[in-house]
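Homework help board

Subject: predicted structure for assignment chain

Our instructor gave us this sequence and asked us to write out the predicted structure in token form, then describe one feature. I got the tokens but I'm not sure how to describe them. Can anyone check?
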Amino acid sequence: MKHVLHISSLILWMFWSVSLNAQELEPRSLTNIPVGMNFGALGYAWSQGNILVDPALSIEDLNANVHGIVAAYLRSINVFGKSGKIDASVPFAAGDWTGLLNQQQEHTARNGFGDPRIRFSVNLVGAPAMNTEQIKSYLQKFVLGVNLQVILPLGQYFPDRLINLGSNRFTFRPQIGMSHRHEKWLLEAYASTWLFTRNKDFWGGNELKQNPILAFKIHAIRTLQKGIWIAANAGYANGGTAYVNGIERESHISTFRLGGTFSIPVGLHHSIKLFGFTTFRMDKGSDYDLVSLAYQFRWGGKK
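My token output:
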């Protein structure tokens, strides 16, 4: 039971990474877009690896294969003269996990909806609200922005099962970011923290509490011809020690992510984005690879 609870303390963090991890390292979130413009996106992600790695556990040869689909919508808004955005996303995941737990071969599979997310963003400096005509003469220099994302506990959750696609608790992620343009390069940096409410129905009626996770990201983005751009991405997360019924678990997270993004427009209103990254740990956390492909369609915008 001790090992089972220990594994469970890592699972909720795992699904934030697996279900929507492509968005966690996504560059250009500070880009100024015309007020009233809408974006719809549908993405597929595949991840594989030792997702629940923890050297303190009696678990060996762990391997997971997870397929995810994410549907998202974004609308640009005017926030007291500043450019802002509201977006929402819903993940669906299907996967299986195999490994040796206490020298016993174990296998489990899950499929269903994960926790949906909503986010409010505003650029405080360097990106005023503009219409489609005004933005034609806009040239970004330095932009400072903030956002708040809320993860709602509406995904698939069974309190009597070890692995779940939902977290059964609210998660809040405030973030601050800055972006600077130098000729055809964009350099971006972000800092955020993950804050969690308690899960009072965790694995058979236990209570799960988790400390905040601090996360940092940087992006180097290069603009190419005809609207094509590429980016190198890096991120680091630290913290997240979990407590089950007040007892601390060895679940402190310290992980790095390295990845890349390639985006190409298809016509005037469509674009395709390919994204991938690898994760490796310094202390506890996940160690896996992910590749995703997304289609985006835009429409609207005030003239």
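Reply (TA_rk): Your tokens look well-formed. For the description, you could write something like this. Confidence is low (pLDDT under 50) at residues 1-23, 53-58. That's the kind of observation they're looking for.
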